[in-house]
Design brief:
membrane, transmembrane helix, alpha+beta, transmembrane
C-alpha cells in the first residue's frame, strides 16, 4: 500500500501545515492574561481590604453589642473552601454603620457557622466577624494561593505557546522538500498530544486535536496511520484523514485515497 501511495504523491516539494495555528496559542495567552487580571482584581477589590483591616485589628477587636448580620451566608466547596459574605450593621455615634464583608478561606468544616460581630475600638466603622478573625491566617494563605493561580494561568499558557512555536520549527525543518510516505504506529492520543512511531521504533509527539481523525491505512492495519518524512530521513508527521495538513490539489488527494483502497 505504501508503494501505491508513494506513486500517487506528486514529486514536487510538499509543504506541511501544523494542526494548531499560531493565532490560537496567542489567543489563549490573551485569555489567560485576562483571567489572571480578573483574579487579581477580585482579590484587590473584594478580599484583600478586609484581610488587611482584620489583620490590623486582630489583637484589639471586641464584640459589638446590638449589632446584626444581614444577608449572611457561607458557600462551601467540598467542605474545604469557604466563601462567607454578609452585611454587618450596628449603631455608631453618627448613626447607622454598615459594612459589606467577604471572607474566603480554606478550612475543614462541615455544618453551619455561628457568627459574632466584632469591631475595632480605634476605628468604629470597621466591622468584621469572629469567624474571619479566628481564620485570619487561613485567609492570608488562601489569598496567596489564588494570587499564585492568577500568575500560573498566563505563565502556563505562555509556556504552551512556546512549546507550540518549537513544534512549528520542527515541522518547518521537514516541510517544503521532497517527502515520502511512511506507515506510523499510533502509540497514544492524550488530549491534544499524539505520539506515533516509525518502523525503526523512533517516536514523535505532535499536537493533533483529539477530534481530528488521522489517515488510517486500512482495517487490516489497525492503529497504523499515514505519515510523511523527508526522503533523506528525519521526523515523520502524521496526516489527517482529509489530507488537509499537506498542500495537495483535490485531484492529488483523491489519488492518494484511491491508492489506499487499492
Amino acid at each position: 500500500m505504501i508503494e501505491r501511495i508513494r506513486a500517487a504523491l506528486p514529486r514536487r516539494p510538499l509543504a506541511l501545515k501544523p494542526y494548531m495555528g499560531a493565532w490560537r496559542g496567542w489567543l489563549l495567552v490573551v485569555l489567560g492574561l485576562g483571567a489572571g487580571a480578573g483574579i487579581f482584581a477580585w482579590i484587590g477589590i473584594s478580599l484583600a481590604p478586609g484581610v488587611v483591616d482584620d489583620f490590623q485589628m486582630r489583637n484589639r477587636a471586641q464584640p459589638v453589642s446590638m449589632a446584626r448580620v444581614v444577608d449572611g451566608r457561607c458557600r462551601s466547596k467540598v467542605a474545604i473552601l469557604h466563601d462567607c459574605s454578609a452585611t454587618l450593621v450596628t449603631r455608631g455615634k453618627n448613626g447607622e454603620v454598615r459594612r459589606q464583608i467577604e471572607q474566603l478561606f480554606i478550612d475543614f468544616h462541615v455544618g453551619n457557622w455561628t457568627v459574632q460581630v466584632m469591631g475595632d475600638p480605634e476605628r468604629p466603622e470597621v466591622l468584621t466577624t469572629d469567624v474571619g478573625l479566628d481564620r485570619i491566617w487561613h485567609r492570608i494563605v488562601t489569598l496567596a494561593l489564588f494570587a499564585l493561580l492568577a500568575l500560573a494561568i498566563p505563565f502556563g499558557l505562555y509556556r504552551y505557546v512556546r512549546s507550540q512555536g518549537a513544534e512549528r520549527r520542527r515541522l518547518a525543518a521537514i516541510s517544503g522538500q521532497a517527502l515520502e510516505p511512511v506507515p506510523l504506529h499510533l502509540v497514544s492520543r492524550n488530549n491534544n498530544t499524539t505520539v506515533v512511531a516509525d518502523a525503526a521504533g523512533h517516536s514523535y509527539a505532535w499536537t493533533v486535536p483529539q477530534r481530528t481523525k488521522l489517515f488510517g491505512l486500512g482495517p487490516d492495519q489497525d492503529g497504523v496511520v499515514l505519515g510523511l518524512r523527508p526522503a533523506s530521513g528525519g521526523e515523520a508527521f502524521p496526516l489527517d484523514e482529509k489530507l488537509r495538513r499537506v498542500e495537495l490539489t483535490d485531484h492529488e488527494r483523491a489519488a492518494v485515497k484511491r491508492a489506499r483502497e487499492g
